[in-house]
Amino acid sequence: MQHVSPIREPLVTGGKTYHDITEDVCRQVEAKPNARWAAALAVSLVGLAIFMYSVYRTLWFGIGEWGLNKTVGWAWDITNFVWWVGIGHAGTLISAILLLFRQKWRTSINRAAEAMTIFAVICAAMFPVLHMGRPWLAYWVLPLPNTFGSLWVNFNSPLLWDVFAISTYFSVSLVFWYIGLIPDFATIRDRATGPIARRAYSVLSFGWTGSAKAWSRYETVSLILAGLATPLVLSVHTIVSMDFATSVIPGWHTTIFPPYFVAGAIFSGFAMVLTLMIITRKTFKLEHYITLEHVESMNKVIILTGSIVGIAYTTEFFIAWYSGVEYEQYAFINRAFGPYWWAYWSMMTCNVITPQLFWFRKIRRSLTATFIISIFVNIGMWFERFVIIVTSLHRDYLPSSWAMFSPTMIDVGVYVGTIGLFFTLFFLFAKFFPVVNMAEVKAILKSSSGVTHNPHKTMHGTDKDLNTNTHHSNE
Amino acid sequence: MNKKFVLGIYDDEDVLLTAIENIRAAGTKIYDVFSPYPVHGIDDVLGIKRSRLPIVAFFCGLFGTSFALWMQIWMLGFDWPMIIGGKPHISLPAFIPVTFELTVLCAAFGMVITFFIVSKLKPSLRVNVFDKRSTDDKFVMAIEVKEGVTDLSALNNLLRTNGAIEVNEKEVVK
């Protein structure tokens, strides 16, 4: 027996049945590509072309194509790397941490959010790999025997920890995502009419039949993977922050970085999830599955993590003054009032002020306002990384080596290009994969649909009164 | 050899769970139940034991931990010792991140690969499903018909009185 709470909003609206869920989610997988989708894909392919061209310039002419100089040796590329990795974190948070917390609202958004994670990590990985200058030797970061290089890799270096963290994060997220996709691929396979689709989805579904034993194991595997992914996602951004925190650069050398980076990552990730989901629910008519309740829940996460980030900015500033270290103090004054003041104040406005608007229920539940604020947060979080990286480096201990950084067109091209790469992957996913986890939404339908709030309807399409037949399991 | 099954089709999880209890209490063996989503409580009524996959994950993780520690200690401590930042050759705190990542990696992959093997999940072109609606909106209970039994009306009745909306027969070529 499920208790129906009168104050809790249903997570699936519109009196959907199990079959309706299958129909609504499979529709765009089975339909011919429509013009709107093709147009959107075409735009992202243009972005991908810009990416290819910029990568070609970077590889053929070398890193000199980028705007880096001797003082600012890390700038645009690492900003984008951290930005993309951070975006990815929301997907894991939704699929793993909310699973451990038994939050049912995660079920209809976890698939797309996790796809976002995987594509964002792919985009992120492009930057450090390209920054190597000779990406074809990228395998040198692995601990390989001496004949490949001169020595073993340095396990004391946070950059090497990053290699392990990002690659583990990517592979575990991919596996977690795929396990969830298997039952849904089976659904599409069993509905497929064309021979190609049937064969393709047969292979993808790994021969899933949905037997009770397999489901029992599936649930165990999901739970353990969630338990593993939760500390993993925290470790990934912790290690990313250690790339900075373990150095002795004023503005980087702080112990607050790991929690501050993790909160910022979740903050930016949820903003990106909202940006994507508001478009997806509209395009694929999934309004009954991704409801205002979902949007509101995500906005609450944004306001929490946004406030944590705000506190972190303030704390950093305070500690710089309180530490009594002259260089540290200068780094922060320079951030706010130096030549990059505009980046700092863009960050403050977008990250600290705009999300506070979500205290108003009206704004929290408005799709337009949410969409605009989510874009603001994405921009703000990009500026945050830019501020941390560039303003700390461009004026360090020796005034004779002070310099400014400005990106070249190729820098911009690689960044815009990864957005193109991201959306190309996302649109392909949205067309050929089920964007909502059908099996998990069906599993919560009985307790969280609009039907349970209306006792005169059943969700099965048959006209039987099933409520009399309640199961009692007491053994 | 051909195997014959009687399939009871259900459309509600609570009816299904009661039916499983009653049918098992009547002494009929249920071959398997197929559902579009994980039905909570079905493990108890079907008598499915708790999965031992978490144990697999634990030992794979343990392997990951030991392997990572051994690898880093051996490489930087014995094979090519080098002073980095004036720290000891074997500086354990610095080895923790890689150790943690490899623990998670081994635990996750070990468990998932085991899951695929024990559940016989692998990419294949043809899949035998008893009733295709079981991946959409119906719950399918399969009962194997014993050899030599031709009269299926008793099974049919048992399923129908326990709420099956439909009863079908299916032969599977082994």
Give a brief description.
The complex is a heterodimer of chains A (about 475) and B (about 170). Chain A contains 15 helices and no strands. Chain A has about 475 residues and is mainly alpha-helical.
Secondary structure blueprint with pairings:
The complex is a heterodimer of chains A (475) and B (174).
Chain A: H1 18-30, H2 35-61, H3 76-100, H4 110-131, H5 158-191, H6 195-204, H7 212-245, H8 257-283, H9 292-323, H10 326-337, H11 341-353, H12 361-364, H13 367-394, H14 409-432, H15 438-448
Helix pairs in contact in A: 1-15, 2-14, 3-4, 3-7, 3-8, 3-13, 4-5, 4-14, 5-6, 5-7, 7-8, 8-9, 8-13, 9-10, 10-11, 10-13, 11-13
Chain B: E1 2-10, H1 13-25, E2 32-34, H2 42-46, H3 53-79, H4 92-118, E3 139-144, H5 153-161, E4 166-173
Antiparallel strand pairs in B: 1-3, 1-4, 2-3
Main location (chain A): membrane
Pfam family, one (chain A): NrfD
InterPro entries (chain A): NrfD-like
Give an overview in words.
Chain B: Keywords: Membrane, Transmembrane, Transmembrane helix. Chain B: The chain crosses the membrane at residues 55-74, 94-118. Chain B: InterPro entries: ActD (IPR021776). Chain B: This is DUF3341 domain-containing protein. Chain A: Keywords: Cell membrane, Membrane, Transmembrane, Transmembrane helix. Chain A: The chain crosses the membrane at residues 37-56, 81-101, 113-139, 159-181, 221-240, 260-280, 301-322, 342-360, 367-392, 412-433. The complex is a heterodimer of chains A (475) and B (174). By secondary structure, chain A is mostly helical. Chain A has a single domain (18-142, 155-460), classed as Formate dehydrogenase/DMSO reductase domain (Formate dehydrogenase/DMSO reductase fold), CATH 1.20.1630.10. In chain A, 67% of the residues lie in helices and 0% in strands. Chain A has helices at 18-30, 35-61, 76-100, 110-131, 158-191, 195-204, 212-245, 257-283, 292-323, 326-337, 341-353, 361-364, 367-394, 409-432, 438-448. In chain A, α3 packs across α8, α8 runs antiparallel to α13 (367-394) and α11 runs antiparallel to α13 (367-394). Residues 453-475 of chain A have low confidence and may be disordered. Chain B is α+β, with helices and mostly antiparallel strands and 174 residues long. Chain B has 2 domains: 2-49 and 128-173, 2-Layer Sandwich (Alpha-Beta Plaits); 53-118, no CATH class. Chain B has 5 helices and 4 strands, in the order βαβαααβαβ. Chain B has a 4-stranded antiparallel sheet with strand order 2-3-1-4. The longest helix of chain B has 27 residues, at 53-79. The radius of gyration of chain B is 26 Å and the shape is elongated. The mean pLDDT of chain B is 86.
